[in-house]
């Protein structure tokens, strides 16, 4: 990997790492107000409406948005600024046609949506906002993908912080004023309009920074990429559609059809709880992998690919495995302390999803991105067909086991798909999974679990507690106790991990290149 590319990747990882904690804290604090304010019925309806908007967006985008990080780097290298501009003009023209079709369909089927989600007053206002969110959300995704492609993670993270600050506060205010679900959905629309304007401005600035075309670019030169663009885009579309099976969106719509409002609320909270943690843990490499692997594919550097693959996998192992063990130990106590009693069932959902989501990221996420960037589509299609094959199981589990059963299906779909892409990438691309490093991390994680289990067993707010706290003071005390135990677990993990060998030397060198708070202390304990 060249020094220039390594510098751009390191800078992107730095801004992801530094700015994400602020986003996470703001979002988590506001969610306490929204979830507890809407209660089970309101939060279930709100989550299902957002799931419907996500599904409509994913089922109608034809994979265009997420295809951009794969092809824009190649277009930039071959055709410069004008080539990028021509390509994006064609993409936006195509998307405009889909927007007209989406809004027409929503207007035509408005009575069906209102009845399906049991919306008050015919749901005309909510359905109109739903359509606007689908269109504006698609445009926002395009702008985000453009910024990510050119390693503008500082910009995307700052805009995410603005979103995390403005939207939850606006939502909380409208919920507290009594506007309920309508207020919560309206706050999303207002925030989306604001952020989209800023994203468009920053994407335009990023475009001006690109190198000018070295020679005159004819539209047919750029058009020559479309025979490769559409197969990749349709595969992304298959990925988008199948991802709704292991994400909560499709499951929430299934529960809405059954009228299981409590199940919707419990599933939505369990997923939200786990997702916030995993987003924080994978923040350093968010939006970095595909642009990097796309450039390595164009340059044909196989040693650099193995180097990048090993580094990403070890980073995910180190971040996710001990955190996953900790979440399994603490989830029940935290959810009981932070949310209303009606949401207690979300703890079981969260524990199941920790296994599915964390192991999927540790095993399959990087091989998946490599296969897509290197245009090895067959194993990706196979993994996605496996995921789609679990749909009948979702419909069978939903009426019998509600949110808990659907969580098991979602976890199974994730793990099966991850196993397929990992096996293929290891065999065909000769990618060596860092099993030895995984053993070190697993040993250190087991050590702190053994230390904490007796303390949680004896404590009042731990894994085995069945008594809900009665007062705010008890809740605060419980959170402080769990925070103290978590710090003890971190200390035990770092001590044992270092004794087992710590970081690989090459990973230590890359960490030393990054800038982040507490780097010297962290490196001292990891190596």
Structure class: mainly alpha
* DSSP E strands, number: 0
**Main sheet: strands, sense, barrel:** none
The total tally of domains equals 1
Q: Which geometry do the CA atoms define?
A: globular
In whole angstroms, the N-to-C terminal distance is 24 Å
Low-confidence stretches: none
Structural write-up:
- 83% of the residues lie in helices and 0% in strands.
- It has 527 residues and is mainly alpha-helical.
- The chain has one domain.
- The mean pLDDT is 78.
Secondary-structure blueprint of this entry?
Elements (H helix, E strand, L loop, with lengths): L2 H58 L3 H45 L1 H7 L7 H26 L3 H24 L3 H29 L10 H5 L2 H21 L1 H11 L2 H21 L7 H11 L2 H37 L7 H18 L1 H9 L4 H11 L2 H38 L6 H24 L13 H28 L5 H9 L5 H8 L1
Helix pairs in contact: 1-4, 1-5, 1-6, 1-9, 1-10, 2-4, 2-8, 2-11, 4-6, 5-6, 8-15, 9-10, 9-16, 10-12, 10-13, 10-16, 11-14, 12-13, 12-17, 12-18, 13-16, 14-16, 15-16, 17-18
Brief summary:
The chain has about 525 residues and is mainly α. The protein has helices at about 5-60, 65-110, 110-115, 125-150, 155-175, 180-210, 220-225, 225-245, 250-260, 260-280, 290-300, 300-340, 345-365, 365-375, 380-390, 390-430, 435-460, 470-500, 505-515, 520-525.
List keywords for this structure.
527 residues
